Amino acid sequence: MEVAQGVHLLEATEGSYAYLVLGEEPVLIDTGFRGRADRILAEIAGIGLRAQDVAHIALTHHDVDHVGNAQALAAATGAKVWASQGDLPYIQGDRKPSGLRGLIRTLAPASPVAVHETYAPGGRVGGIEVLPTPGHTLGHVSLRRGDILFAGDLVTSRGGRLRPSPGMLTADKAALQRSLRDVGQLPFQLVCPAHGQPVARGSLWEALADRS
Ligand SMILES: [Zn+2]
Is the pLDDT of residue 147 over 70? Predict the structure, then answer.
């Protein structure tokens, strides 16, 4: 589904949406639950892109429903995989998360992903701005292109409202609050989360403060 010009929500990743952003260097933001690489590639082909045209795979954080197809898609496309320094050890399989995340990972194991590049402060991936937004995980990032915020799990949307990342899965609540506040200073009009449909910002970001 094209949610804005050149920005596609990939239906094959329903449950934890990945987005394909077209441009000189097309970027896939997150990769969904594992086992869906073939469907994702078919959907990309349907958009009119060859697999090898995908230049970058930008991971917002290490959770299994975001990194699930990263290794398979990197192999199929030749795209460069990007991750934050903070989440890198979990994504590469060098470290296991603890607590509830550890339990989730035991129930839904993730294949290690070979990461090619880590985000630099103030950096960009394929022309898309990378915003450090720690909280949900310590290395969580969001991305922004023009009017569109790709929020990862910084927020979720439901019924046309936004909520912060669920408390049970928030690694650092104070950091999450700071991230929400900092991102709120930026101009964007459309919020594209992993969980829930894209939603127009309106005054929803301001209402977040009351819900966290
Ligand atoms: Zn997550």
Answer: yes
Per residue in 112-131, pLDDT tens? 999 999 999 889 999 999 99
Q: Is 44 exposed, middle or buried (0-12, 13-18, 19+ CB in 10 A)?
A: buried
**Domains contained in the chain, CATH given:** 2-208 (3.60.15.10)
Distance, in Å, from the CA atom of 143 to the CA atom of 131, rounded to the nearest integer, reads 6
Separation of CA 6 and ligand 1 centre (Å)? 25
**CB of 198 closer than 8 Å to CB of 191:** yes
- 210 pLDDT band (50/70/90 cuts)? low
CA of 33 to the centre of ligand 1 (A): 11
Asked if 24 and 31 touch (Cβ cutoff 8 Å), the reply is no
Task: Compute the residue count for the chain.
Answer: 212
* pLDDT at residue 7 tops 90: yes
- Confirm whether pTM is higher than 0.70: yes
State the distance from the centre of ligand 1 to the C-alpha of 16, rounded, in angstroms.
9
Please tell me the distance between residue 64's alpha carbon and the centre of ligand 1 in angstroms. 8
